[in-house]
Design a protein that fits this description.
Enzyme class: ligase
Number of strands: 11
Catalytic activity: hydrogencarbonate + NH4(+) + 2 ATP = carbamoyl phosphate + 2 ADP + phosphate + 2 H(+)
CATH architecture of the largest domain: 2-Layer Sandwich
CATH topology of the largest domain: D-amino Acid Aminotransferase, Chain A, domain 1
Pfam families: CPSase_L_D1 (PF25596), CPSase_L_D2 (PF02786)
Number of domains: 3
Order of helices and strands: HEHHEHHEHEEHEEEEHEEHH
Protein name: carbamoyl-phosphate synthase (ammonia)
GO biological process, one term: citrulline biosynthetic process
Largest sheet: 5 strands, antiparallel
Structural class: alpha+beta
Shape: globular
Length: 250
């Protein structure tokens, strides 16, 4: 990519249109000073916001900073750390690799042996592993939010996964708009979505995922994707709202 930048000398780049790979690539180019060297401006969502949403540990801290909750979790950088984290949280746990594509290296573990296997697989793809308290069976709800540089915010669409938490969104059936949320739940999650996106300073399109307790109004923020994701494509088709086009214009 550096060779292309060197040859083409672009004035700016957009990192939010190439999925997870583009984000990881952009973060590396920023860290190695390539953008600065060739005077390339990052358009749309700032690099800091991408790092803040992708690094699960920083993400938890930033979310806690505005009084919202992420699922109780600990970051691990080795198999032993993962096992220690699970001891603290109590089994069953859910393991997720950071900076990963399509939920690679993620799964549930009911005991040490299962977690060891998972952790070994996950750490082969990623440097950071997150151990979460298991929320198996909770509803998984997502919102697509668009924000511009002047802080205008709209939620384009909300979606609900037919399968409960624990089955990756990409392999699940998603219904837009959601079918089983009460008006109160819908507005509660919508308000939170806008609050979070403003806090991170995302410009363009982004997707926020929640775990919602089916028996109460308790919810956790699972993650924020500061990019166009598979869900965005679905939201665009379901609502007729040209998400990618609008995000490119912001």
């Amino acid at each position: 990519v550096e060779q292309v930048i060197k040859a083409e000398r672009p004035g700016g780049v957009l990192l939010t249109f190439g999925g997870q790979t583009a984000l990881n690539c952009g973060v590396e180019l920023q860290r190695s000073g390539v953008f600065e060297k060739y005077n390339v401006k990052v358009l749309g969502t700032p690099i800091e916001a991408i790092i803040d949403t992708e690094d699960r540990k920083i993400f938890s801290e930033r979310i806690a900073g505005i009084g919202e909750k992420v699922a109780p979790s600990l970051a691990a950088y080795s198999v032993q750390e993962a096992l220690d984290a699970a001891e603290k949280l109590g089994y069953p746990v859910m393991a997720r690799a950071a900076f990963s594509l399509g939920g690679l290296g993620s799964g549930f573990a009911d005991n040490k042996e299962e977690l060891k296997l998972l952790a070994n697989q996950a750490l082969a793809h990623s440097s950071q592993l997150i151990i979460d308290k298991s929320l198996k069976g909770w509803k998984e709800v997502e919102y697509e939010v668009v924000r511009d540089a002047y802080d205008n915010c709209i939620t384009v669409c909300n979606m609900e996964n037919v399968d409960p938490l624990g089955i990756h969104t990409g392999e699940s059936i998603v219904v837009a708009p959601s079918q089983t949320l009460t008006n109160r739940e819908y507005n509660m999650l919508r308000t939170t979505a806008i609050k979070v996106i403003r806090h991170f300073g995302v410009v363009g399109e982004c997707n926020i995922q929640y775990a919602l307790n089916p028996n109460s109004e308790e919810y956790y923020i699972i993650e924020v994707n500061a990019r166009l994701s598979r869900s965005s494509a679905l939201a665009g088709k379901a609502t007729g709202y040209p998400l990618a086009y609008v995000a490119a214009k912001l």
